[in-house]
């Protein structure tokens, strides 16, 4: 079931379309099937993604304004932009929507009905709203689980945010629906004193609603959109790409409750324990058979053979486990000469946290280290003889901006 995010702010030019396009692109890069829906008659999403306006035969307007007995046919509207990334473009006709449906019952639910028809096909629907509190924006809010408000990090925008939030609260009450409100600071310029002060002020007043991630002013974002490219396509080494990748990760974290380390470890521990138990049982059966055989051939009483203690073998649960001293990492690289763990807890240093080779016969090839960490969520990778890789014994992973996987733990 798709999570629906409306990108809204009645103030023009604060970066709604920029956030909608680039957040969608980065969500799709992180493996999330994403539909970007343009609800602004200006049609800037199509422009910003090089969809030729004259070739848009059916737009979101056509499905919104269809008669009630006509089924929704989104296939004719949707354009594929990239892997996991689709767009439902807008057209100028959308400007007539408000007048056309004035006074009609259910007019504010029309987008929700449309998106419900494709909810199984996507993980996220991101809606770009026009700069107004109009029926189009109202449709977006009724369809949404969350509204993301981009705010320019400047004096007037920050002071206008309070009003903006009051309007949203009022709309929320009017329609009586659950709607998470999140704010993202945009167009931040760290070099200006005003920028720094305004970000501080925003955090002070609205910190509880804000994403940790803020989007810096980055000329590459502007250049990309003027060439019809999301920042992921235009320049994946830019600060703009880093900011939007981080924002996408934060969105995923906020809207998809993560599997906790306890669950991961418990499931894995149980699987390994079951496997070892069944191996131990079959070994002991085989030992009994051998003893019976030797007893019958030699005519002697069988000796009792001590079964290998299963607990000892259970220490071989590779991956991450929580211990009293912190998080224990146990990796299985028998041929490596050096293994380190790098992650959020050591600034991603490739060599700050070397793992110790366990040389006992039973544990040959295993590498171990325990790191004391505070409660939180950490991403990490192993550095095996200089080569970075995710932990193959931890199923909890997420994509990183380099198209690879980070392993994740929650403590
Ligand atoms: N972080 C950024 N870095 C550089 N330029 C940006 C950034 N965010 C937005 N812009 C630029 O600011 C301008 C306005 O952004 P955008 O069109 O996304 O705003 P908007 O809120 O959608 O506007 P409207 O209210 O008209 O729909 C665009 O030229 C865009 O390229
Ligand atoms: Mg816009």
Description:
- By secondary structure, this protein is an alpha/beta fold.
- The protein folds into two domains: 3-255, Rossmann fold (3-Layer(aba) Sandwich), CATH 3.40.50; 261-410, Immunoglobulin-like.
- The chain is built from 13 helices and 16 strands.
- The chain has helices at 16-29, 44-48, 60-64, 97-100, 110-116, 135-143, 155-175, 193-206, 219-226, 231-234, 239-255, 261-298, 310-314; strands spanning 3-7, 34-38, 79-82, 85-88, 124-128, 146-152, 180-186, 319-323, 326-332, 339-343, 356-358, 366-371, 377-384, 387-389, 397-399, 405-410.
- Helix 1 crosses helix 11 (239-255) and helix 5 (110-116) packs parallel to helix 6.
- It is globular.
- The two termini are 28 Å apart.
- Bound molecules: adenosine-5'-triphosphate and magnesium ion (MG).
- Residues 12-18, 40, 44, 131, 186-187, 215, 217-218, 221-222, 225 line the site of adenosine-5'-triphosphate.
Helix/strand layout:
Layout: E1 3-7, H1 16-29, E2 34-38, H2 44-48, H3 60-64, E3 79-82, E4 85-88, H4 97-100, H5 110-116, E5 124-128, H6 135-143, E6 146-152, H7 155-175, E7 180-186, H8 193-206, H9 219-226, H10 231-234, H11 239-255, H12 261-298, H13 310-314, E8 319-323, E9 326-332, E10 339-343, E11 356-358, E12 366-371, E13 377-384, E14 387-389, E15 397-399, E16 405-410
Parallel strand pairs: 1-5, 1-6, 2-4, 2-5, 6-7
Antiparallel strand pairs: 3-4, 8-9, 9-12, 10-13, 11-12, 13-14, 13-16, 15-16
The structure holds adenosine-5'-triphosphate and magnesium ion.
């Amino acid at each position: 079931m798709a999570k629906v995010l409306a990108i809204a702010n009645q103030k023009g030019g604060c970066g709604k379309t920029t956030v909608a396009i680039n957040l969608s692109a980065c969500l799709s890069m992180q493996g999330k099937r994403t539909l970007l829906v343009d609800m602004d008659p200006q049609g800037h999403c199509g422009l910003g993604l090089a969809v030729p306006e004259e070739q848009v035969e059916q737009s979101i307007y056509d499905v919104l304004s269809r008669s009630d007995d006509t089924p929704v046919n989104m296939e004719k509207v949707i354009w594929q932009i990239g892997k996991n990334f689709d767009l439902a473009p807008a057209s100028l006709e959308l400007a007539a929507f408000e007048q056309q449906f004035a006074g009609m019952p259910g007019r504010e639910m029309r987008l929700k009905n449309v998106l419900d028809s494709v909810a199984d096909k996507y993980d996220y629907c991101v809606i770009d709203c026009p700069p107004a509190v109009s029926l189009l924006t109202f449709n977006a809010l009724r369809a949404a689980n969350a509204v993301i408000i981009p705010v320019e990090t400047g004096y007037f925008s920050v002071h206008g945010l309070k009003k903006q939030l009051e309007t949203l609260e009022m709309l929320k009450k009017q329609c009586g629906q659950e709607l998470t409100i999140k704010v993202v600071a945009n167009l931040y310029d760290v070099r200006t004193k005003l920028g720094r002060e305004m970000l501080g002020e925003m955090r002070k007043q609205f910190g509880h609603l804000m994403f940790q991630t803020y989007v810096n002013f980055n000329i590459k974002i502007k250049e990309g959109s003027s060439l019809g490219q999301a920042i992921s396509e235009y320049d994946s080494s830019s600060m703009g790409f880093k900011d939007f990748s981080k924002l996408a990760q934060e969105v995923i974290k906020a809207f998809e409750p993560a599997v906790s380390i306890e669950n991961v470890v418990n499931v894995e521990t149980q699987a390994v324990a079951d496997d070892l138990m069944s191996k131990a049982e079959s070994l002991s059966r085989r030992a009994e058979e051998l003893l019976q055989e030797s007893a019958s051939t030699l005519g002697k009483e069988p000796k009792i053979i001590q079964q290998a203690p299963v607990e000892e073998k259970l220490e071989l649960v590779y991956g991450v486990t929580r211990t009293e001293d912190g998080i224990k990492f146990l990796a299985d690289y028998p041929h490596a000469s050096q293994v380190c763990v790098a992650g959020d807890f050591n600034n991603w240093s490739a060599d700050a946290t070397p793992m110790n080779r366990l040389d006992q016969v039973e544990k040959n090839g295993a590498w171990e280290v325990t790191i004391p960490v505070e409660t939180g969520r950490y991403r990490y990778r192993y550095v095996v003889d200089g080569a970075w890789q995710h932990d193959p014994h931890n199923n909890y992973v997420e994509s990183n901006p380099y198209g690879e996987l980070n392993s994740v733990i929650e403590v």
